[in-house]
Design goal:
seven-stranded mixed beta sheet; mainly beta; globular; 11 strands; about 120 residues
Length: about 120
């Protein structure tokens, strides 16, 4: 099993930046892939960014060029650097760990971008 704890959310003005952190309870290099998802009110949860064990990254079109996912294996932590934030980025952001047979979720952290 993996416990995930997100932090770093908050209220920011449009154009601002935030960095989200996801601390895992086990060594993340043993996890197949980790990702950041978000869910806005009344909308489905969507994948924002992901990073594989090999270090390959992927992004939703809506955040390409603005968000960067990275990881620190020594701290068992994955980050999401969010720049040039827009009001439409407002959502609860969740961290996900994809294992071979299961996946795990954090409790989420709220990001609110004011116009």
């Amino acid at each position: 099993q993996v416990q995930l704890v997100e932090s770093g959310g908050g209220l920011v003005q449009a154009g601002g930046s935030l960095r989200l952190s996801c601390a895992a309870s086990r060594r993340i290099f043993s996890i197949n892939a980790m990702g950041w998802y978000r869910q806005a009110p009344g909308k489905q949860r969507e994948l924002v960014a992901s990073i594989t064990r090999a270090g390959s990254t992927g992004y939703a079109d809506s955040v390409k060029g603005r968000f960067t996912i990275s990881r620190d294996n020594t701290k068992n932590t994955v980050y999401l650097q969010m720049n040039s934030l827009k009001p439409e980025d407002t959502a609860v952001y969740y961290c996900n760990a994809l294992m071979i047979l299961d996946d795990y979720w954090g409790q989420g952290t709220q990001v609110t971008v004011s116009s």
